[in-house]
Amino acid sequence: MTNKKIKINRAPVLTLWATIVAEHLAYDKDTALTLGKAVAGLNAQSKGKRLGIYEEKKREEKEVKKEPPVRAEFVELLGRGIPTVKTPQGKRAAIKGEIIEAEGVQKYLRQKFGDNLDDAHAAMEKLGKAYTPKQLEAEAYSLYEKFRPKIPEGKKGWGVKGELDLDYIHSLAK
Predict the structure, then answer these.
(1) Is residue 79 within 8 Å of residue 144, measured between CB atoms?
(2) pLDDT by residue (tens digit) across 51-78?
(3) Ramachandran angles phi, psi of 80, nearest 5°
(4) How far is Cα 92 from Cα 71, in angstroms, rounded to an integer?
(5) What three-state secondary structure class fits 115?
(6) Assigned domain for 64 exists
(7) Would 22 be classed as within a structural domain?
(8) Do the domain assignments include residue 152?
């Protein structure tokens, strides 16, 4: 074992894990990257609203900013319904009408994990492979809750980095 611990925010950890889970559920790498980013974004949004960091928009504001209807197909991943659209490059997650670009997600992960991205990816990949796709689909979020970085509760923990223990992730795969 490496005794490797990474100081990192939860959002990139969830993005990477959701990406790996999506790949194990047979989505191609680029689609999986966009789904992973969408899961983390939707999670952050709902937590931010719950903590009072983000305000719920008033009904009038929502109606003023109506977006043109886009035929979205919803994909279920880590307990979240993610809107996706078909693009010339393939299926992509789209939040509030904005298509998430796979290259941007890859750059985000590289930036947040730095030199630790390959090690974190390997640990999570091993964990994903320890489950059948059906088991992983059912257990993915509870597994994330076990290994995600520990941070203070409530607003104090918003945006705070915690410790991601790669050895612990490896141990969950056994």
Answers:
(1) no
(2) 555 555 544 444 444 444 457 799 999 9
(3) -115, 140
(4) 12
(5) helix
(6) no
(7) yes
(8) yes
**Cβ atoms of 92 and 102 closer than 8 Å:** yes
How far apart, in whole angstroms, are the C-alpha atoms of residue 91 and residue 47? Answer: 27
pTM across the whole model:
0.84
Q: Which residues, in sequence order, are bridge partners of residue 6?
A: 164
Asked if the model's pLDDT at residue 44 lies above 60, the reply is yes
Within 13 Å of residue 166, how many CA atoms lie on the same side as its CB?
Answer: 20
Q: How many domains does the chain have?
A: 1
* DSSP per-residue string spanning 51-66: HTSSPPPPHHHHHHTP
β-pair partners for 77: 80
- Per DSSP, what are the bridge partners of residue 133? none
- Rg of the chain, C-alpha, whole Å: 17
* Residue 21 backbone phi and psi in degrees, to 5: -60, -45
Q: 74: which DSSP letter? A: E
How, if at all, do strands 98-99 and 73-77 pair?
A: unpaired
Task: Note whether residue 34 is domain-resident.
Answer: yes
Query: What's the sign of the alpha-carbon dihedral 146, 150, 154, 159?
Result: negative
3-class secondary-structure state, position 158 = coil
Instruction: For residue 30, give its domain range.
Output: 5-57+69-172
